[in-house]
What we know:
This protein is mainly beta and 417 residues long. The chain has a domain of 168 residues. It has three helices and 34 strands. The strands form eight sheets. Strands 2-6-5-4-3-13 form a six-stranded antiparallel sheet, with no helix packed on it. Strands 14, 15, 16, 17 and 18 form a five-stranded antiparallel sheet that branches. It is globular. It starts with a helix and ends with a strand. The relative contact order is 0.12.
Amino acid sequence: MKKTILLLFSLNFLLFLSCTNDDSDDRYAEYIVARPLVMSKAEFDASVTIIAPKPIEESGKVYAYGNYIFINDKYRGIHVINNSNPQQPVKVGFINIPGNIDISIKNDYLFADSMMDLVVLDISNIDNIQLVNRLEDVLYNNVFFPMEADLFEYEDYDYDTEIVVGWETTTERRLKSEVEQRNGGFVLMDGLAAAESSDSGTGQGGSLARFKIVDQYLYAVDSHNINVFDISNLDNPQDLEDVYAGFDIETIFNQGNYLFLGSMRGMYIYDITSPATPTLVSEFEHGTACDPVVVDGDYAYVTLRGGNWCGATESGLFIVDLTNIESPVLAESYPLDGPYGLGIKDEKLFVCDGASGLKVYDKTDIHDLQELNHFEDIVTFDVIPLDSHLIMVGDGVLYQYEYLNNNIKLLSQIGLN
């Protein structure tokens, strides 16, 4: 009897606690908190290594080259996947590159960012990848913050002996008043820097890429500049004069003699007739939002994502008329939920609408897009339309789709965890 009374008392006490905890207190809310991933400067200088396949921690951008797919693990490195058989892709290795976000490949040479450094690797033998060069501090504005974060915490960071190579984010319950006191919801880190057509022998990146190789030049955008490299000597790139391009530059795309830069403020178009010195042709402003851009013929397709640092509250697809390249104008817009990357194959437009899945449209009439497919219940990030099939990366998963006449069909998927 005493045990029964004690048990009832314990249950009632726990029920009382559950009814009075912070879950019902409107002074609190859920916030995304970012903390820096740090390592010593000495470790960073010797950090590029090739190891066996490992689980992915946060899938980033995707890149296709020959029979291989390279998937960025944000701030950590690159997962290498043998895709000789797209129905059964196989993970074969991991390239450890702290601070890595982007890559581009030409003739078996892989160019990758490692925070402010540019590293060059020989991948001619995928089983014996070799580091052949490292250009230090040539990407000095290449420090990016996770756009989804509400708070940044870095109290334990030692500026003198350590370097920030990336970020990890968690969702935590915090006092609203605490967040409001921190510069409107975020804390900038003092002491840190401020934040497609394909050539022969060159791989293909997605619409979220910041690296793009055109002929003998590598263009790498950071938050402010186009960093230009002469790669005519592939194992020894030459760092040329940077071209200032504005603020909040996010992505780069190439068509013909033009570079199309996506930024939080708009789309900038640069002429690369003189490839070492890109010159501004025009810009299209769309307000403040995170956006990648792809171009097909006389139209640019731009996805805008609002929320957090992206600024805008509305998300959507903008289609911009480039008939007069010096004066681009908005031709049409469509609402979306929270888009990231996009791609085009013939008359099909593929849009990664974040947690709302992959959406496929017929773009024959840009004023009346027709939805062909909607793959729901998956998280989507970026997509590459290859000649033979479609590659898409989501939340720790690589998807591949087969093209059909009027739609697409899942060919394979492989978990990267």
